[in-house]
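User: tokens in, sequence out, please.
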């Protein structure tokens, strides 16, 4: 029953022209320990199938829940790297549970939804879900969605560590997204590669990620959006 559809794709990025070092060729950074995942799905067969897919892909399943309330409890107890959660569950629905997990910054959430529940996707995003997968799905749908969700969560945490005010967070996020987009379209990097390049350049040059993003946008566009 392993089925799933990718929720959101991550596309890669490239590095800016003239002035800054070229980004490294796409090189995956492998963790020494497997990523820890919590699975919340009330349909037993689907849950077991998800667990099998995750273990087969090298993930460590640290908990299983069959309702939203238990999912939140386990997320707090185990502090996983990611939560895979169904939208419709008893006691507490997945959207409410995802909102609690997101508000407490426990882990990124990948939502599972049925074709008939597409209207819930926007609610899931507003609740803090980083990606979604549509049933029925396959391993090739689930794993990329998981990687996208974790990459986005890491980006948000890195940006939040750098800026404090809400206004700064919004402007910095907007600039970094613009820089990533330019790097992907003009230099051929993936989104994760572009973000890592911005982050590494920031550390190497002792600049903020916002300053690096501004430089990228300035060099690769005639009219930088942050000057408008």
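Assistant: Sequence out:
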């Amino acid at each position: 029953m392993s089925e799933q559809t990718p929720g959101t794709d991550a596309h890669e990025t490239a590095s800016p022209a003239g002035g800054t070092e070229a980004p490294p060729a796409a090189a995956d950074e492998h963790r020494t320990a497997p990523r820890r995942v919590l699975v919340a799905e009330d349909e037993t067969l689907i849950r077991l199938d998800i667990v099998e897919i995750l273990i087969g892909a090298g993930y460590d399943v640290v908990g299983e829940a069959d309702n939203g309330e238990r999912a939140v409890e386990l997320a707090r107890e185990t502090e996983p790297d990611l939560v895979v959660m169904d939208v419709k569950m008893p006691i507490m629905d997945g959207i409410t549970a995802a909102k609690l997990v997101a508000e407490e910054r426990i882990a990124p959430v990948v939502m599972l939804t049925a074709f008939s529940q597409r209207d819930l996707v926007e609610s899931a995003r507003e609740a803090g879900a980083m990606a979604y997968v549509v049933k029925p799905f396959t391993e090739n749908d689930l794993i990329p969605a998981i990687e996208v969700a974790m990459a986005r969560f890491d980006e948000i945490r890195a940006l939040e560590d750098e800026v404090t005010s809400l206004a700064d967070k919004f402007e910095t996020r907007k600039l970094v997204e613009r820089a990533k987009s330019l790097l992907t379209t003009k230099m051929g990097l993936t989104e994760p590669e572009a973000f890592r390049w911005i982050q590494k350049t920031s550390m190497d040059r002792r600049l903020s990620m916002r300053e690096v993003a501004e430089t990228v946008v300035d060099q690769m566009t005639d009219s930088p959006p942050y000057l408008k």
